[in-house]
Amino acid sequence: MRVSSFLASASPAALAVVLTAVAPPAAAQNADQATTVDAIIVTGSRGQPRTVATSPSPIDVIGATQLETIGRDGLQEALNALLPSYNLPAMTGSGTGGVVRAAGLRGLNADQVLILVNGKRRHNSALLQSSSWTNSGSAPVDMDLIPAGAISHIEVLRDGASAQYGSDAISGVINVILKDADHGGRITAGWGSNYEGDGDTWSVSAGRGFALPNEGSLYLNIEHRRQQNYTRGVPATRFGFDENWNIVPVAVEVINQGYGNPKTETTNLAFNAELPVNEALDLYAFGTFSDKEGWKHGNFRQPTANGNIIELYPDGKSLKLGIDQRDHQLTIGGRGRFQGWDTDLSTSYSHDDVKQLTTDSLNPSLGPDSPTDFYLGSQVFTQWTTNLDLTRAFDTGLARPTQVSWGLEHRYEEWKLTPGEELSYLDGGYVFPRGPYAGQITNRSTGVRGVSPDDAGADNRNVYAAYVDVGFYPTDRWYAAVALRHERYDDSAGDTTNGKLTTRYEFTPNFALRATASTGFRAPSLAQSIYQQSTVSAFQATADGYVQYFLKFLSPESELGQLLGARPLTPEKSENYSLGFTWTPLSNATLTVDAYQIDVNDRIVRSGNLAGREVVAILEQHGLKDFNGAAFYTNAVDTRTRGVDVVGEYRADYGRFGQVRWNASYNYNKTEIQDIKDLVTPGNNYQVFDHSAQVYLERGNPRQKLILGGDWSLGAIGANLRATRYGDVTQPGNTSALDRTFTAKWIVDLKADYNFANGVNLTVGANNLLDQYPDKVGVLSNTGLGAYGYISPFGFGGGYYYTRLSYSF
User: Fold this and answer.
1) Does the model's pTM come out above 0.85?
2) What average pLDDT score do residues 528-549 get?
3) Structural domain of residue 719, as residue ranges?
4) Based on CB atoms within 10 Å of each CB, which residue in 149, 570, 766, 807 is the most buried?
5) CATH number of the domain enclosing 733
């Protein structure tokens, strides 16, 4: 892996040695403080730190210890294991979409949840999820680029918050709070592997706090992770030519390597610094820098295919798709008192550059002279956000002071799709000289084409926002708040104003009702508006097995896209209602229950695979051959999601047998399509938002997820047992008769750890202890596609065991 210059001279192992050498003797890091309803939170209530129990909106808190010892590779896997409302499908996209994964909250898409770091907007990935599966069209925040060892805790607001934080916060907000210690640190090394003996992962992380002048602090963390690929493809019948160029089966089976996890290598660096200048001003800065490389096998291509060059690949091929990613975000700011207001002025610059590559591939139109490695092009996203936030408490004669907050925001965004090398998209016009295809030109679709200059593009926009948020107490037990935010986009997204009403009434010190009502929005991403690409491959179940489509993906703003039914994208609009209660029946027991409804109108989705003679004819009329379909993004549907979140905790002290924190959490959500827009072009007998797209939207995520767990400790010994029930999901075919529903499964995780007196901790554990797999697909495949559903909410790698060794100082 090529490591960028900012990390080249500081490997995690080397940094670990340095941090240990300069560290003074210190106690081990504090125990996990952010795992109960007593944890102090800052998300969702400006200027008023609260506890989870007193929050007027539902919120979860995940502590550092949970993240560092859970035995999951990356932050997203950890959140999927710990949060019932969080869903991370096994494969969120074909090709490179599996390297940058997309996860959603409360049954909605990854681009409908807002990610913050230290309360500041985190940038999205440049890489667009262009597959037809769940989370299609999302350019998600790549949370795996935030090192877990740098995190103090994570606050997950399960409520609409566009009126408070702006675009994307339809299903909620995830706020990652970084460590700010000025001393001590932690070094961790880990290894894990699937029961099958594949998919090995290695990780090393080192973090250290440093004291700065005036009681300031700097916390620095670096981590390096490596993951080997694994496949759960099934044997594919390989075909070949006999002496008369007839296509015949070959008595050699091949395993489709494209059905599984990619091979990745990631290096992340994070820092968080604060420097008090005087009593009225603190300066701060934080940021992350990442270098990531990932490779994923494509599906097996038969040697007899019209797009194969037998001289290069006599036995067929399974090409590899890769990314080479450089990502960074830097935030600087100052907070203090100004004219009686608590004031925070900050600016944040971020840049994500994802280069797409392929190896063991070809451009069949170049014949036997084709290269086998190509640079396919890049997707680049830049975001620069500046915020001014002010808050102040006023004595208005009510039961408690009234908190008034207001602020301004400017955000600049730019997305670019740059061309690949010329040979990756050039049409060389090669004609087969012999064999069954003699005299025919090659079918270029079986290769992976680079981005052509015609498909390349760039766009940018400015966003201006202002908000006001007022919280007050009509009585000592009744809290209410109103928020209003206006945003103006200088592109087609236009203007939007959103509001939120929040209330909480405390009947007793142990029982309170809470409710919210809000409107929200999500502006179409720049990538969704201008993305175009050739040879987007898609598979779909039919009565004869899997059928492969070779698609031309079109910009909804293009003339050809609009001829096929596309229209320029407009913002999604939402209404969010929530009603629940918090109850503390005992000093060591808590229960929260929140029901919700989220209506999203003009939802931006990927169209179905538009195929058929009429579509192909239109494509050919525009000079696009070798394609049997097209797709684009469109405001196709209105949806309604209804659900309930239940979170319970009980802390028990069993004396000489130790203490146990019992917890149970549950999410139910059901998304239903309320209306499908009339987007069918007159004269064409196809439906833009077809059966397959509808099933992915309504049934691609589990409607139920239940997590039961116990965290036991006795002196230096600890253990955690967690059982998670993932509800059923449905993978569509091209008709309802070919849909495949995969039944609910229980996944059991178990870990044990021991804290030695010298600060060393040893953890061993197993995820998916009982080696559960999803149901088998049951569809015949001559391509070697996997036996298991690719939208499984818990993956299809089977059981996984791991160990972690850490040293706290």
Assistant:
1) yes
2) 66
3) 5-33+183-808
4) 149
5) 2.40.170.20
